[in-house]
């Protein structure tokens, strides 16, 4: 059975893109004939992202230049959002690409890992519903949310199966769509063995891993670093050309505020990220409700003690299961959490061990089993013709 994974902006290089590649790998190992179809704007950037996100595995990726129609759609999305809301661009381009792929594959299975909408495909993987209210006020945001809803409505179809990345996302999805769709939780795979470390000797380092984009609230890392001057804070993650500009903004923000213990490192190689996380005492996630929190789970695997915002999948599905004391609602609470753990080596050791036991339930084999079970639940197997 042929499975085509539709993901039009693979070169963004965030958690959604990692998921698409790992799903392709899992489907291949389960006996499906699988490939990813994507558009590209920057071929070199796409090649680098593929290299970073698929160590030890050579994915089958069909990269297409943006056709005129998709180029117009992408330009419109950029103009509407200032290139800041990648989710809108993903959704618009997914609609174009799904239409083309449906005409090409005939009886194959189409999987949408990008749009955040239950599109007219066989399987839709929802990282977070596109049309959830932002809570922001004002004419501009009301107009934007109206636009998103109209877009989502135009893209919505009848997928045979909807997959979501956490129990938290499932609850949000049901709040938007009710019980109309068949929904299963399939956690993104975490490369636990690659990152794993229970090393107790740690440096006074705090790491944040994130795609460099304004909505990720990374300015709060600078604010928090100013309250813990004896720690070095590292902000690392993938960055497009626009993301590099945002990384530059964060550097200037730290300089302007006289915060000298912040290090902004875009596009850090995966091996160096692993080394950094294995030596860091803490991982800090800024106040953003992460839908699952792949970077949080990787940090926990590496033995960094997580401190996260008390919302989202990163909290409910990962960190709250390690210890309720590791969550915050205001960044002003973070220094006290740091000082408590820092002063109690036995507590730090227990948190590392509990954390590793939690994230082992998210490893690749667990992901593959959950995916296979979910597909079988709607009669999609590698033997289908």
Quick rundown:
The chain has 385 residues and is of the alpha/beta class. 46% of the residues lie in helices and 16% in strands.
How would you characterize the overall build of this protein?
It is a single chain. This protein has 385 residues and is an alpha/beta fold. It folds into two domains: 2-189 and 363-377, Rossmann fold (3-Layer(aba) Sandwich); 192-361, Glycogen Phosphorylase B (Rossmann fold). It has 15 helices and 13 strands. The protein has helices at 15-29, 43-53, 68-81, 86-105, 139-155, 167-177, 192-195, 219-225, 241-256, 270-279, 294-301, 313-318, 334-342, 345-359, 364-377, and strands at 2-6, 33-40, 61-65, 109-112, 123-126, 161-164, 183-185, 203-209, 232-237, 262-266, 280-284, 305-309, 327-328. The protein has a seven-stranded parallel β-sheet with strand order 3-2-1-4-5-6-7, sandwiched between helices. Strand 8 (203-209), helix 8 and strand 9 (232-237) form a beta-alpha-beta unit. Helix 1 packs across helix 15 and helix 3 packs antiparallel against helix 4. The longest helix is centred in the N-terminal third of the chain and has 20 residues, at 86-105. The protein is globular, with a radius of gyration of 20 Å. The relative contact order is 0.12. The mean pLDDT is 89.
